[in-house]
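quick one, 304 residues, struct below
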Amino acid sequence: MAEIPHIVSDSESRTLIARLPARLRDLVQLARFDRPIGWWLLFWPGAWAVALAGQAVRRWDIVLWLLLGSIVMRGAGCVYNDIVDRDLDRMVARTAVRPLASGRMSRKVAWVWLGILCLIGLVVLVQLNRLAAITALASLGAVAAYPFMKRITWWPQAWLGFVFSWAALVAWPAVTGGFAPALWLLYAGSICWVIGYDTIYALQDIEDDALAGVKSSARALGENAQWGIALFYLAAIVLWAFAFWQIRPQLLCLAALLPLATHLIWQVLFLDRSSAIDALARFRSNRLAGLLMFLACFVVGSTA
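---
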């Protein structure tokens, strides 16, 4: 099949996307439905919270609602991000062919698409109890501010950590009716994890970001990026170990984190900072990291 230039380079479903009508293809790419890694990363912290609270089996329905919510709200966030960043996206090779940046789609169509996705998100919201729903709504300000962080701070990845870990704060009260110390430790660890993996992601664009004046943790860390990623991953493991201790204060329960820790060590040790392809592969491997953490939370939460 001939190359279709309007498909972004990091699409995970190029052959399928190429078969779609042009307008539908642009809507799918605008919401990043062709790059499911994003909604997996948004979903996992919520699933962890349900599992660590010992409710993964009994409240499987909440897990599924969280998954649907992650898909549509990640899509909505991406549409909003592209509306705000369309001018910056034109200056970065990897994002210049996005529907809004390239001019193939108007902002009016993008706003309508954003509204449709938010309406689906509202269906998910009404499935939650009052505390969980209020907590979910409280995230909207942070989500709206995120696209501007790369213009303000060298650490937009930290802000993304607050946003992409928020599902944990929603999921825990959704299944327990309240908050707990273990949740805050789980959330803090997730923030560190997000900073680590999104720094890896930012390595892809480090040269274009410098030319466009876009700030990132990858640029801030420079030659020390690998050490910085390692420290954030270490902080995540330590915080999660304390979260597990709150649920089950036994040394044996901490062993549940060993597979995840091994995977994160592999990411750091074999990361090639000079290769955008390698950075993307390491970033995407956090889908597996999220699953390993879910299994660890499930074991600890189920045996507490």
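The chain has 18 helices and no strands.
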